[in-house]
Amino acid sequence: MSVERIQQHFRDSAAVKLEALETLSMPIAAAIDTMFMALANGNRILACGNGGSAADAQHFAAELIGRFERERPGLPAIALTTDTSVITAIANDYAFEQVFSKQVWALGQPGDVLLAITTSGNSANVLAAIEAAHEREMIVVALTGKGGGKAHEVLADTDIHICVPSDRTARIQEVHLLTIHCLCDGIDAMLLGED
């Protein structure tokens, strides 16, 4: 394995993160405010995505329910990617495109937030979840890349779009993880004060 190839991954990742610093700081701050207000009002955050984005949804929920870097009471978050019985029942009885939207309809309440994660912006089941969230009077925070794909078209004016300026899935996922950590840290700072 070429050490230069490995080092290039680090350089590419750093370059995308530095570019994203300029374009994503404001929407991430808006997402923190939105999520904090929802939590402060007794609402919760639902999160969904496929593959690596499913892992990111679970990571986000774990950081809120458990803790991020500081001790605090758990915060209500649900990863819609974890209940295999629900997911397989919906996929089998209806369609895979509905595995998240049916959960949003069942669990989402007005004032809740949906964290919709799709690197391409084109995942049909995530797009359906966004539409269901709108019908349930929820706000959507979308984490995308590759120009935002179809998600850019279905988001409402009240939603927040955090679109990573990259076309490479690995780089998008790396910035999504950093964004999730920024969201968790921001929520904690609003709850507990700055360090």
Task: Please provide a written account of the structure.
By secondary structure, the protein is α/β, with parallel strands linked by helices. The protein has a single domain, classed as 3-Layer(aba) Sandwich (Rossmann fold). 56% of the residues lie in helices and 11% in strands. The protein contains seven helices and five strands. The protein has helices at residues 3-40, 52-65, 84-93, 101-107, 124-135, 151-154, 169-192, and strands at 45-48, 77-79, 113-117, 139-144, 160-163. It has a five-stranded parallel beta sheet, sandwiched between helices. Helix 5 links the parallel strand 3 and strand 4 (139-144). Helix 1 (3-40) packs parallel to helix 7 (169-192), helix 2 (52-65) packs parallel to helix 7 and helix 4 (101-107) runs parallel beside helix 5 (124-135). The longest helix has 38 residues, at 3-40. It is globular. 43% of the residues are buried. Keywords: Carbohydrate metabolism, Cytoplasm, Isomerase, Metal-binding, Zinc. Belongs to the SIS family. GmhA subfamily. Substrate binds at residues 50-52, 63, 92-93, 118-120, 123, 173. Pfam families: SIS_2. Pathway: Carbohydrate biosynthesis; D-glycero-D-manno-heptose 7-phosphate biosynthesis; D-glycero-alpha-D-manno-heptose 7-phosphate and D-glycero-beta-D-manno-heptose 7-phosphate from sedoheptulose 7-phosphate: step 1/1.
Question: Which blocks of ≥5 consecutive residues have pLDDT under 50?
Answer: none
Q: What letter string, H or E per element, gives the SSE order?
A: HEHEHHEHEHEH
Whole-number mean pLDDT: 97
Most strands sheet: 5 strands, parallel
CATH-derived architecture = 3-Layer(aba) Sandwich
* CATH uppermost class: Alpha Beta
Order of neighbouring strands in the sheet with most strands: 2-1-3-4-5
The CATH topology comes to: Rossmann fold
Rg calc: 16 Å
Helix content: 55-70%
How many individual domains? 1
Distance between the termini: 41 Å
Briefly note the structural class of the backbone. Answer: alpha/beta
Q: Could you give the count of β-strands?
A: 5
* Beta-strand proportion: 5-15%
Shape: globular
CATH-defined superfamily: Glucose-6-phosphate isomerase like protein, domain 1
| Tally of helical runs | 7
